[in-house]
Amino acid sequence: MTRYALRRVGFMIPTLIGSTFLVYLLVFLIPGDPVLALAGTKRVSPATAEAIRNQYNLNDPFVVQYVKYLGNVLHGDFGTDFNGNSVISTIGTALPYTVALALTAFALKLVIGLLLGAWAGLRPGRTADHANLAFTILFLAVPGFLVAYLVQYVLGIRLHLLPISGVRHGYPVAFVLPALVLALETASPLARLTRNSLHEVLRSDYVQTARAKGASPSRVLWRHALRNAFVPIVTYLGLSMASLLGGSVLVEYIFNLPGLGGSLAQAIQSQEGPVVVGISVFLLLFYLVSALLIDLLYPVIDPRVRHA
Amino acid sequence: MLDQTQSAIATDRTAATRRVAPTKRGNPTLRALRAAWRRPTFLVAAVIIITTCLMALVPALFTSTDPQDCTLSNSRKGVSAGHPMGYDMQGCDYFSNVVHGARTSMEVGVLTALFIFIVALITGSLAGYFGGIVDSVVSRLADVLLGMPVMVASLVVLYQFRERTIWTIVFVLVLFGWAGTMRYMRGSVLQVKNNEYVQAARVLGVSSLTILRRHVLPNAIMPLIVMTTLGVGAGMTAEAGFAILGVGLKLPAYSWGLQIAQASRDGNWQLAPHLMLFPALMLGLCTLAFVVIGETLRDVLDVRSR
């Protein structure tokens, strides 16, 4: 178990270095002056430009720049915006909203995906199966932001059921629509995977054996089939955190939530380059750490992994 | 007798190649495609895609109105005779704008999918077939890409480009998007590589490239085509997403993404829903059509989802 955990942490380090290095490389080595690119259409005074140069160590050789930057980031220093406010304080205010949205969406997604998938997997080739297929294809194909606008229009503007913008209405109410959109957008692969996984397991020899030995259908399902069917599902859930975080950028922006994604989009609109870079790098790290945590939960579900 | 045959094969490489690596294509693929044509959903999807392609190639077939011929007093007016989609903010004919937007959206989708296909095909087969250092480099790089939220990384990179064309967007999408397809290709190659018939071909002196082309590719190409079809819609979606967030194309370009982005600014579409409806409908129909085609192909070609 300890060896497994250590190995997982070891695997994460190259990814952490690789992804931040790649982003840093692309952001600061694109032809042209990176400081001007960060400022966008803003006019930057020479003093500010010099401050940014210092902040990203742009006067050093490239590798030194990067190592220093990574050092700062790991100490919680994500830079400062053009007004001199530190990006980490922006992140601090925004993070709770993103976490609330992500967790709510994750819960909704689990309910939708697992129920739909299980329903279809238990009755392959019947109505449930076709409904599942239509659902997955529809939400796999239609962009999430279109679903967001549609939901805003129908449930918010036409029917006045739920607020469509901002967080004035507090936790559950203001987060229902954005979480629902995120959940619908990411539930399709889960529903499909659950269906296929369950379908496959239910046909396997050991389940047939359990049935033949007279185990009741519910015992076969809960004790024998589901446990194995869940292994690929949990793997997928870990991987799917990325789409949840990536999707939350657009959804938070559309629903005007002041979370990390919303702040990132705001920073893009107001051309606050250092904030864009700071929040993005934070999101990268945030994702890597959550993926690691889910990986560490893996052996709890699949005992085979413990001894690997 | 046996010796004779062996030496004949050894000296005559082309004969060996002909014998163990016949060029004749099997019929199952064609049969499968014919089965696909018989499905109504596939047909509808194909019609949508062909129409959109025509729109992208020859917009004049659909509208003769100049999308830049605008009367400001018509701003945000709804559907009327001769203007089936109403007017946009500047009072330009919206139908003409939407028709002209097809080209950019299709270009981004198709080019992204195409380049991902090429990059994945090359890197995947090299990594899978030759293994060793090539495989290590390619696979570790793919691990990093698959291990990060691509949307976030694309945003920050696109932000740094001051002038963004469709090529900038395609570049970023391919850069961050090839890894998954590559891994699939590599998997197919690894699977086929140690089959007995491939070993036999190798022993008989068939070159690596020929083995890749004749034995490995036919096994791997169909899944790749399915993934590429699914990728077109993803590219179109990404283009629109970038436009909404302000890191996509900028006016005066025409694209569905940009039209959706314009409509979403300052609650424009809440006053005039048609501004959002029509480009959204086109984009939604197109992405849906590509997924339906991809899924049907996956189904009839019996590509197992791994």
Oligomer: heterodimer
Name the structural class of chain A: mainly alpha
Principal-axis shape of chain A: globular
| DSSP helical segment count of chain B | 13
Number of strands of chain A: 0
What keyword list fits this structure?
heterodimer, A: 308 residues, mainly alpha, MetI-like fold, 14 helices, globular, B: 306 residues, 13 helices, 73% helix
Question: Could you write a compact summary of the structure shown?
Answer:
The complex is a heterodimer of chains A (308) and B (306). In chain A, 79% of the residues lie in helices and 0% in strands. Chain A has 308 residues and is mostly helical.
Commentary on this structure:
The complex is a heterodimer of chains A (308) and B (306). With 308 residues, chain A is mostly helical. Chain A has a domain at 94-307: MetI-like fold (Orthogonal Bundle). Helices cover 79% and strands 0% of the residues of chain A. Chain A has helices at 2-29, 34-39, 46-55, 62-74, 87-122, 127-141, 144-158, 171-203, 205-212, 217-239, 241-254, 260-269, 273-301, 303-306. In chain A, helix 5 (87-122) crosses helix 11 (241-254), helix 5 (87-122) crosses helix 12 and helix 7 (144-158) crosses helix 11 (241-254). The longest helix of chain A is centred in the middle third of the chain and has 36 residues, at 87-122. Chain A is globular and about 80 Å long. Chain B has 306 residues and is mostly helical. In chain B, 73% of the residues lie in helices and 0% in strands. Chain B has 13 helices and no strands. Chain B has helices at 2-11, 13-20, 28-37, 40-57, 94-130, 132-146, 150-160, 166-193, 196-203, 208-245, 256-264, 268-271, 274-300. The longest helix of chain B has 38 residues, at 208-245. The chains are: A mainly alpha (308), B mainly alpha (306).
